[in-house]
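[job 0417] fold request received: ABM domain-containing protein
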Amino acid sequence: MYAAVRRYEGVTDAAEAARLVNEGFVPLMRQVPGFVAYYWIDAGDDVMISTSVFQDRAGVEESILRAAGFVRDNLASLLPNPPEVMAGEVVASA
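[job 0417] inference complete; emitting structure tokens
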């Protein structure tokens, strides 16, 4: 399995971002081949974190591209700063 983590700082409206992600982005993630799980986390202090889990690296790479496009097209005013993006192989899980 592979995962991507994106950390967004300076979120202007966490509740609205969560609504838009749940209604618009989650369905996009489910369409990516190899989809396992997706989480959108409100970390407080105007920080939100997303975690995407896929069966292979190609799924993670596709999720990163789709996330960038979705943020640009739908969340730019709510997530004004570029995210920190990390991705790699899952080497332990429970």
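[job 0417] notes: The two ends are 13 Å apart (CA to CA). The longest strand covers residues 35-44.
[job 0417] exit 0
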